[in-house]
Amino acid sequence: KAGVTQTPRYLIKTRGQQVTLSCSPISxxxxxxxxxxxxxxxxxxxxxxxxxxxxxxxNFPGRFSGRQFSNSRSEMNVSTLELGDSALYLxxxxxxxxxxxxxxxxxxxxxxxxxxx
Amino acid sequence: DAKTTQPNSMESNEEEPVxxxxxxxxxxxTDYIHWYRQLPSQGPEYVIHGLTSNVNxxxxxxxxxxxxxxxxxxxHRATLRDAAVYYCILRDDYKLSFGAGTTVTVxx
Lengths: 117, 108
Known about the structure:
The complex is a heterodimer of chains A (about 120) and B (about 110). Chain A is mainly β and about 120 residues long. Chain A contains no helices and eleven strands. Chain A is globular, with a radius of gyration of 13 Å. Chain B has strands spanning about 10-15, 20-25, 30-40, 45-50, 55, 60-65, 70-75, 85-90, 100-105. In chain B, the strands form two sheets. Chain B has a five-stranded mixed sheet, with no helix packed on it. The interface of A and B includes residues 33, 42, 45 and 105 of A.
């Protein structure tokens, strides 16, 4: 069974540009979550999608957005990039049947390393 | 989110057991205890989780105190591949709230 796939693996952008990252979950998984990892802040939750709807959102500005398609694949978009957006962006998938998800395992991809110059 | 406290780092010798403690004195009755680990240059990897009873799987064991205010992740025989940051997380909702974790070093 294929794992969670994130593309691209590395990305370099300049300030002010926008970027779109892609995540393909494990087959059969309907929930996709996104996390940002930086050396200073660690791993922080961005948002979660289930059945094409954003179900939960973390404490990030509106420049960070996402969507989920009918095949459960997800994309996240960051507009007007800032230097501080340089980070490893991780996607995780799970079955998602439990709306709280407390008893579910999350499966993470290897991430997209975004560098903003 | 309820908080967890873990040691910053631990060292172990290869093929010896590793016991990783986690304190969570403010845990509520419905919080699940999850453990994830992150190897260098990879995303976090699920290790184990439990609610009240001790749990075992092929990767590790989770021992949960009777009052649930602490737990211990046990790696039975550490290998070099077990060198990673281990996160103890109390889960009461949809997201994982990662702390700083414990950096485990395994000596050959």
